[in-house]
Design goal:
By secondary structure, the chain is mostly helical. The protein contains 23 helices and 20 strands. Keywords: Membrane, Transmembrane, Transmembrane helix.
Amino acid sequence: GTRNPVRGASSCAPCAAGTYRAPRAPGDVSAATSCTQCSPFSYMPIDGATACFACPNNTLTQTLGATSLAQCACRRGFFTPLATSGVPCFACPQGAVCEGGAAQPYPAEGFIQLQSRRFKQIFPQCSPPEVCLRGGYCANGYIGELCAECAEGYYRYGQRCRECSSLHISSGREMGLLVLGVTVLFCLGMYMLAAPSVAEQTTAVFLLITFVQTLDLFSLLSMLWPLEWDVFFSALSIFNFNLQLAGLECYYRAPGSFVETLVLQLTLPIFALALYASLVFTYGGALVFTRLLHRTHDSFASALASLARSHRFLAAAERSLGAFIATLDAMYTMLALKTFSLFHCRDLDEGVQVLYIYPALQCWSSDHLSLLPLACISMLVYVIGIPVLFYTLLKLAAKSKALRDGSAGLRLGSLYLRYDQTYWWFELLVLFRKFMAVAVVAFATKYTLLQSALLLLVLFAAIVVQDYARPYLRPIVNLLDFVLLLAAHLVLLLAIIYNSAFQESTQYTACDDENITAANITCQLNEYERNAAALTMDIATWCIFGVLLVAFFGSSLVIYYQIQQLLYRIALEGDERAFELDAKLTKLRALYERVLAPKWHWTAGEWLRISNDSERDYFKHLLSQLDQHYQDWLDRQAKDAREFLEQSWEKILENVSFLYNVGRAFMKIICCLRRKNTVVKEQRYTAPVRAPPPGAAPPKQPLVARLKAALFPPEQRRGRVSVARKRPSLKNRESAESVGAVRRNASSQEALSDDLVEAYVRSMRAIMAPGDQLDT
């Protein structure tokens, strides 16, 4: 550890602190004019050292030649909880930024800093990440420990906060009246759609509502959507009864306003039930008041007793019940989503969990435990109880044959009238599809790709089941349902492509260096990949727009078509008395509505009004024949897979046999044409050809008959009616005598036995011999 910077010195000087010189072997007298400084990862506090001391783990010095342990500080990306130097450092936690030295870690962009129960600093990711800024600050409009609460002047929508000025309604009273009015209008609309004749003709409306609710679920996925679609999804959420659109926090500010909104959404079915009950009681009260006013009853008790027997009141009560069932069906997606959200928590650290949909609420705390009874009741009554209720009602109606005779149309028309009779249970399958989609969206939030893949699988299974069953009565409705399911599947697939391209584009940074270097060339290649990712994002966005445009345009066409049919039916059924007085005409109308296409039976119904009895009988006979033909066709169809395979095999064999017969006939024709043609000349004075004696071989059939027998064997012509040829008219006796003379004077010419043309002539002469019938 010595040096000698001066020439001619008798001894060497020791190396100063912070430097060292490796020891030499004995006898080594080579000159060393300087010492080596300690590296950034070491230090030396004394003179004459032959080596430097290493700094603690994950530390380094700011300069070369450090002379103290205190100069060893944490490297970038590491920290020490003691905030001192000269001690080992630890790796920076995930979600934090460590600048090294004595600086403590702070949260990166998209993360927040918390302290766990073990007094350990944790940095969980914010939900959504853009609400947390670098350094632990909340974005504009967000407050709270996790930046999960909305500041004053903002309201919560989903997991984001929006400005209250975007609502354009300044009074809370006006907003409350608006929400109440929309809810009442929806319930009244469901009451109108609950009529059996209307429910059957408005299937496309319910399909469109289900499609829009599915699209609204897509906005809750853990993926990034284009900014242009934010307003679009906000408009769609109204079909999922999202009261957050009203921004009640802007008018009724309270610490638990989010929880209050959630509870209000879960009580919407109770409000709808109360509304329908009030409609029934109001209608019943009006009937009682009318009867008392017209003095049809002496007392109020007798009026109530007659009301219980009133068909109009009972029909109104059943229709209100049917409207409430349709409302539950439409609200099922929202009810299941809000119920599941109260059970879904995400881990921040060991022992620390927060509610995923509202991170400001810590799971299993006193506030959360107060909501669990409501969540359990909602799970039993709504999520499980609604499908069980629907199945029980449909099963009881099916056993009592109320589904077939139509007596359950007012109560359960929204559940089964749109389906074929064999698929009266299909609405339960639709509820199961909604349940699976909501469960995937609510719980599979940790892995975005897995969540999207599971939802794609649910939609694909729904497409396969729909295409196989085709459960709806109208073929156009089956086609619309298939198109909407396929559109939802494509939208989700394009959204996955968009997110993949977005993540790819964020991996590259802009190129600042204009020099031609290897790093710059790599950066330029990355620039091309980023542009390709941006182009992919644009293409995916426009494809989503095109798919949605096709879906909504097709739905609008079908809805217009069904509304037009409904208006025609209302116009046609304007005078029900004529049909009620004539029972035969009522049955006839039901027959042609079942047999004829919907496009035609409106005109037929108008014709029935002006037709006479004989015309109606003939029309009824025609419709009966059509109906019987259709029923026979249904009976011939395969009832199961085994019968379908058997019929397919029989058809294949028939086609092979037919092709074989056709080929055989063509081969005969070709062989016949290749033979030498024989000219047969009739001799005027030759002896007539007599009929063959009894027991002789029959003559060969003519060419046409042989071709007909080859193409259509007798077993294939079974059931056909053969029409006998008419005898020639004998009014012109001269022509008849000339024909007889030709017959008597015709002579036969012996020809080759294997010539087909001569055989035909001989057979015809034998048939037209004297004494034989002309129509033989």
